């Protein structure tokens, strides 16, 4: 079992920045890819970014260079630096972990955090 705990969400003005962090515990040896997804009420969960153990990254199309995912394998953490935030970035952001070395689809992630709210005001 892998437990994921997110932190760093909150309220920010349009154009501002936030940094989300996720700490993994439990069966960390089983973790391959990690990532961040987001979900707005009534909508499907959406890929934000994923990263492999080796540092290969993948981003959702909407990111357009504004977000950066990073991972520290020694600390079992994955962060998401979000810059130039827009009101449409408002959502609950979830950290996810996969047993697969490379994963980009939500159904490839078996462990999820509880989510952290990000609200961007205009």
Structure description:
The chain is an all-beta fold and 122 residues long. The chain is 0% helix and 50% strand. It contains no helices and eleven strands. It has strands spanning 2-7, 10-13, 18-26, 34-39, 46-51, 57-59, 67-72, 77-82, 91-97, 111-112, 116-121. The strands form two sheets. Strands 2, 4, 5, 6, 9, 10 and 11 form a seven-stranded mixed β-sheet that branches. A four-stranded antiparallel β-sheet has the order 1-3-8-7, with no helix packed on it. A hairpin with a 4-residue loop joins strand 7 and strand 8. It starts with a strand and ends with a strand.
Protein topology:
Layout: E1 2-7, E2 10-13, E3 18-26, E4 34-39, E5 46-51, E6 57-59, E7 67-72, E8 77-82, E9 91-97, E10 111-112, E11 116-121
Parallel strand pairs: 2-11
Antiparallel strand pairs: 1-3, 3-8, 4-5, 4-9, 5-6, 7-8, 9-10, 9-11
Q: What keywords describe this structure?
A:
122 residues, mainly beta, 0% helix, seven-stranded mixed β-sheet, 50% strand, globular, four-stranded antiparallel β-sheet, 11 strands, single chain
């Amino acid at each position: 079992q892998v437990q994921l705990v997110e932190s760093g969400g909150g309220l920010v003005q349009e154009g501002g920045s936030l940094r989300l962090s996720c700490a993994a515990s439990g069966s960390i040896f089983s973790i391959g890819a990690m990532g961040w997804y987001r979900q707005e009420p009534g909508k499907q969960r959406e890929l934000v970014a994923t990263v492999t153990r080796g540092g290969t990254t993948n981003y959702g199309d909407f990111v357009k260079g504004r977000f950066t995912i990073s991972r520290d394998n020694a600390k079992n953490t994955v962060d998401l630096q979000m810059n130039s935030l827009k009101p449409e970035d408002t959502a609950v952001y979830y950290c996810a972990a996969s047993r697969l070395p490379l994963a980009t689809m939500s159904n490839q992630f078996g462990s999820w955090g509880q989510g952290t709210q990000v609200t961007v005001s205009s």
